[in-house]
Amino acid sequence: MSDLIEGYLGKTVEGRKSRLPAKLDYLQSATGLFLALFMWAHMLLVSSILISEDFMYTVTKLLEASFIFEGGNPLLVTIAAAVIFVVFIAHAGLGMRKLPGNFKQYQVMKAHAKHMNHDDTKLWFTQAGTGFAMFFLGSVHLYIIMTNSADIGPYASADRIWSEWMWPLYILLLLAVELHGTIGLYRLCVKWGWFDGDNPRENRVKLKKVKWGLTVFFLVLGFASLAAYMKIGIDQVNNNNVGNKYQPTAKVMEYKMPNKTIGGIA
Ligand code: HEM
């Protein structure tokens, strides 16, 4: 009954407003922080290809817990991707609350941003646009990784990127995720006053410089990694080797123990 009254009048019989929007805001911040930090780790792991094919192979096997399961178990990657997918969907659902619901709302927001000529307000539009794009781009990637976790590695990933045409999607996803992630982290810092210090105005300027530095760093790293996978993918086609899995060179050995095998680097 109380819900019904609040639904009609906007407040309860006691005159209180729901705390749910504040709780949802908090959840949106928490899921966003988790996803942004996950993406930093993700980009560093994916960029292991820039060191060598063997190194990327070793990283892949470590994430499949090759130190517990002989040869690694891709099911662990499927589970991790499923968990990330759930957080990703929850974050997107919470974010939808902030998008303008009709043209009039959009017009009001646009006019407001133009009138204020305030950089942070303009950043909001980038955040909303990249978030919307990721609904589609991120879902495709997560579903494919979740259902093909056994096909991750220097050759399998390169084949997916080049021969299976994932590179155009990755270019768009990379741009969206790097802009969205760093703008999101910056907005979290401002919203919760994490680095306000004694002079919030001055610190905000510094924070924005750090934000741009991180965006550029992860974009350069991401595009360099993508180029490396594309080059391997093209070589795979030229060598008639598409679909074949990478075989580690002698540098990556298997340590034999009496009753189990553990993968490692010599
Ligand atoms: C546990 C979850 C995830 C796993 C296991 C995973 C795994 C991978 C792997 C193995 C690659 C290399 C290319 C390939 O094999 O297809 C890749 C690339 C990429 N992933 Fe993910 N990913 C995950 C979540 C995400 C999320 C949530 C996003 C963003 C919404 C994302 C964005 C990207 C982008 C942009 C690339 C291309 C990066 C580049 O080439 O530099 N990934 N991912």
Automatic annotation (TrEMBL):
Could you tell me the superkingdom of the organism this chain comes from? Bacteria
Major location (coarse) = membrane
Give UniProt keywords alphabetically: Cell membrane, Electron transport, Heme, Iron, Membrane, Metal-binding, Transmembrane, Transmembrane helix, Transport, Tricarboxylic acid cycle
Keyword Protease (UniProt): no
- Sequence intervals crossing the membrane: 26-51, 71-94, 123-145, 165-189, 210-230
Pfam families on file: Sdh_cyt
CDD domains for this protein: QFR_TypeB_TM
- Write out the annotated subcellular location: Cell inner membrane; Membrane
Q: What does this protein do?
A: The fumarate reductase enzyme complex is required for fumarate respiration. This subunit anchors the complex in the membrane and binds a diheme cytochrome b.
Q: What is the designated name of this protein?
A: Fumarate reductase cytochrome b subunit
